[in-house]
Amino acid sequence: MTSVPPRLPPAIELRRVAKSFGTVQVCRDVDLAIETGEFVTLLGPSGCGKTTTLNMVAGLEDSTSGDILLAGRRVNELSPVERDVAMVFQNYALYPHMTVAENIGFTLRMRGMKRAEIAARVTAIAASLELSHVLERLPAQLSGGQQQRVAIGRALVREPRIFLFDEPFSNLDAALRVKMRAEVKQLHQRLGVTSLFVTHDQEEAMSISDRIAVMNRGRVEQFGTPEEIYARPATRYVASFIGNPQIELMPGTVEAADGRPAVRLGAQVLPLPGDGRFRPGQKVEIGIRPEHVRLGAGNLSASVRLVQPVGPLSHVVLDWDGGSLTATLPGFSRLQPGERVSAAISPDDMLVFDQETGLRL
Amino acid sequence: MASQATFEQRRRSAGLFLVAPAIVVLLAILGYPILESMMLALQRVQLNAGEIQRSFIGLGNFQRLLADETFRHAALNTLYFSVAEVVLVVVLGFGVALLLNHPLGRPGFFRILLVVPWAIAPVANAVLWKWILNANYGVLNGILQSLGLIDYYQVWLGSPFSALNFLLLVDVWKSVPFVALLLLAGLQRVPSILYRAAYMDGASRLQAFRHVTLPSMRGAVAIAVVLQTIWSLRVFDLVFVLTRGGPADATVLLNFLAYRVTFNFLDIGYGAAIANVIFVLTLLLAILYIRLVRPAEGAAR
Amino acid sequence: MSYALYRRGGPGLRLVTIVGLVLFVVWSAAPVVWLILSSLLQQKALIARPPDLSPANLTLDNFVTVVASAAALGRGILNSLIVALFSTAVALALGAPAAYALARLSVPRANAIAFLVLATQMLPSIAIAIPLFLVISRIGLIDNVFSLGVVYLSFNLPIVIWILRGFFLGIPAGLEKAAAIDGAGVLRTFWHIVLPISIPPLGAAAVFAFVEAWNEFFFALILTRQSAQTVPLVIAAFAGQYQTVFGQMMAAALISVVPVIVLAVVFRDWIVRGFADGMMKG
């Protein structure tokens, strides 16, 4: 994360921003403060309000209530141009009747820039994005990756204060998506322009962002660095949305075993960290990430149901009397379905959520 | 830009600005005539020495309609003509669309053939068919006699029943192409994956037609039916040139009756009443159109 | 049975299709062929029983006579051209922005307005003919090509609006948003982005409107006398006057339909797609 002198106002700030269509509330009281130069991702499933939030920052949709500030200035009533933001769209949204050069230069033309200057700027941008040889082509004649770079070039050419990305990679194939992700990250490292990125792909969000805002049903559930979001999820929802394979969540009840807190899951009793966070009788939900399940030692007895090797790792699905559990092992596992194994989970690795509120304890 | 407005606000105000001229022009052309026509329908209008005299008679014109033998006759003619035309045009149009959707029917030549009757002016069409159907020298008579199907040249437009049906034939000939084009567009929108699925499921071609093609075409057929109904009710030029309503008023359709009452008998109020009946009838069919098409669209999504 | 064969059909279906296509070609082409043939044959060949089609009877005399004698036809074509071009141009200029607004900009009650625009087409021409006639004669514009062209807007504007609205509904919203971000206002977005990608439907709407105006008969019958008579009137009058001079009648009819047939054939794909889109997306 970039360190910023504290007196500068945030590059993008949302204060209790809400949006509803009729009776449907799409965004409820969204609060966000994004520092200058930061790369922030809005992450969530479709319909969670992330694209609407982005559109409100861009000025493409009006908020129902709340304030949107860019560099400390309230911009609710300003049009996209006046906000000086650039945007890369899902499906690229390139103008199909214009050549690559015209696509990139359109925004400058709209600003009344001189022809020669537009040409110079477009040439420079195209060179930096390896598009020089396709400048006279139409978007339909480009590969997916090239189209993507034109969309980025169109955003770059005007040197905006803020970049907005609306699921820009969702239509690319897997390999290209990973490549473009890296290109965008390098671009950000090079230019340092404040960026707000929207995606439903948690891996994409983790790999590209300084900070992630996880959204659910119109609310920001947690706003933090990828590490915070992953290791210390604020809610059960965040824990289950982040991580692949998904975290295992199991309901249980806190007990006192030998004066130390523990949790009963079916017939098994697992010790909890003894730091006084838990009281006996409390209904909780235990979250265990696959990489925290150690096989070969421990008091959990389980049988192997399924082994899924993915190359560097194998995901092993286990059955035990508390339910099922996934463990991640290095390399190709030799375990066979039906084999009995013992497993251990360190109390410090367990994520414990309140069953009712879903908040982490 | 000096005045501050958001994207959505600008689109709202620009929307009104862009739609207004067209609506104003339409209202300027149609607004007064529509109201005036409704007023006329409620009046007795007489021409006295070049002066128009109007007196309000309430629903008098409409009451006259109920007792008017000629109107009833024209209404029945119109009913027969419209129903027969819609059925024939949609069935033939569907057939042609299926033919042109088959690989053998793909060559562009067939589509060229299809737009020609559509583009021919109704008047030119009527003139052409008047010649084809000519009682003394018509090519139809010539062909049928050469084939031995008739002994003597026939006066095709001479008897009431035959005249009405030839009127129908001529209009069907002109109307089939467009409906076929519409239905062909509909056929081409049926996702081919559905046929693949039907094939995998072991459906026969007939079953695929019954369970894939027909249901997918519901919306297109509904549109074709209602558009054709509207067009059938508008037929005028053909009657005017081909038969002038004869023989014995057999080809007087409502539209032509309204014209004749208004311009030949100068019974302007009564003519307006007939025109308004046609309008209401068509509008009801249009509402039906909206009803039929909306659910079909919902199902398609 | 392979999938390809399944789609194409076996010999039975093939035969049915071929027979169907032949019937279709005969049915569609025969009257047009006869129109062309009649216009090229001498009167004596046409009134023979059956018509005598020997090549010796072929002649261009009918065209020569029609073009030379019927000055009305030339004037009619000119009038039709002016009326059709005028009403098509105005309908596009007013209708395209309106269609865009109704399809994409948040105009209150846009769907209701669109339906009302369509509903005007249910109105039989006869219903508005008398009031229109009275108004136009009061301002002294009876028998004037431009007043006729304005009246033709009553159907050409709705046609243009419906065809284009259907297309505009399908434009990806991202394009407009991208243009807004790029600094184009609504009008510049319409001009620089929307119109250039809408050339096929604009062409379809234009051809459609032109054909409708060129072929219109009823309003022309009532609102013109002499100098503003359009082609359909000339043909109808010609058919009444010279109804026994068949070859010349067909030559005149052929001359009158050739321009629109050429347009329709050249732009056939646009017309089909444009109209189908416009209607299906109601």
From TrEMBL, chain B:
<feature type="transmembrane region" description="Helical">
    <location>
        <begin position="268"/>
        <end position="292"/>
    </location>
</feature>
<keyword id="KW-1003">Cell membrane</keyword>
<feature type="domain" description="ABC transmembrane type-1">
    <location>
        <begin position="75"/>
        <end position="289"/>
    </location>
</feature>
<feature type="transmembrane region" description="Helical">
    <location>
        <begin position="79"/>
        <end position="100"/>
    </location>
</feature>
<protein>
    <submittedName>
        <fullName>Sugar ABC transporter permease</fullName>
    </submittedName>
</protein>
<keyword id="KW-0812">Transmembrane</keyword>
<dbReference type="InterPro" id="IPR035906">
    <property type="entry name" value="MetI-like_sf"/>
</dbReference>
<keyword id="KW-0813">Transport</keyword>
<dbReference type="InterPro" id="IPR000515">
    <property type="entry name" value="MetI-like"/>
</dbReference>
<comment type="similarity">
    <text>Belongs to the binding-protein-dependent transport system permease family.</text>
</comment>
<feature type="transmembrane region" description="Helical">
    <location>
        <begin position="112"/>
        <end position="132"/>
    </location>
</feature>
<feature type="transmembrane region" description="Helical">
    <location>
        <begin position="14"/>
        <end position="35"/>
    </location>
</feature>
<keyword id="KW-1133">Transmembrane helix</keyword>
<feature type="transmembrane region" description="Helical">
    <location>
        <begin position="208"/>
        <end position="231"/>
    </location>
</feature>
<keyword id="KW-0472">Membrane</keyword>
<feature type="transmembrane region" description="Helical">
    <location>
        <begin position="166"/>
        <end position="187"/>
    </location>
</feature>
<dbReference type="Pfam" id="PF00528">
    <property type="entry name" value="BPD_transp_1"/>
</dbReference>
UniProtKB/TrEMBL annotation, chain C:
<dbReference type="InterPro" id="IPR050901">
    <property type="entry name" value="BP-dep_ABC_trans_perm"/>
</dbReference>
<protein>
    <submittedName>
        <fullName>Carbohydrate ABC transporter permease</fullName>
    </submittedName>
</protein>
<dbReference type="Pfam" id="PF00528">
    <property type="entry name" value="BPD_transp_1"/>
</dbReference>
<keyword id="KW-1003">Cell membrane</keyword>
<feature type="transmembrane region" description="Helical">
    <location>
        <begin position="12"/>
        <end position="36"/>
    </location>
</feature>
<dbReference type="InterPro" id="IPR000515">
    <property type="entry name" value="MetI-like"/>
</dbReference>
<feature type="transmembrane region" description="Helical">
    <location>
        <begin position="245"/>
        <end position="271"/>
    </location>
</feature>
<feature type="transmembrane region" description="Helical">
    <location>
        <begin position="218"/>
        <end position="239"/>
    </location>
</feature>
<keyword id="KW-0813">Transport</keyword>
<keyword id="KW-1133">Transmembrane helix</keyword>
<keyword id="KW-0472">Membrane</keyword>
<feature type="transmembrane region" description="Helical">
    <location>
        <begin position="148"/>
        <end position="170"/>
    </location>
</feature>
<feature type="domain" description="ABC transmembrane type-1">
    <location>
        <begin position="77"/>
        <end position="267"/>
    </location>
</feature>
<feature type="transmembrane region" description="Helical">
    <location>
        <begin position="190"/>
        <end position="211"/>
    </location>
</feature>
<feature type="transmembrane region" description="Helical">
    <location>
        <begin position="81"/>
        <end position="100"/>
    </location>
</feature>
<comment type="similarity">
    <text>Belongs to the binding-protein-dependent transport system permease family.</text>
</comment>
<feature type="transmembrane region" description="Helical">
    <location>
        <begin position="112"/>
        <end position="136"/>
    </location>
</feature>
<dbReference type="InterPro" id="IPR035906">
    <property type="entry name" value="MetI-like_sf"/>
</dbReference>
<keyword id="KW-0812">Transmembrane</keyword>
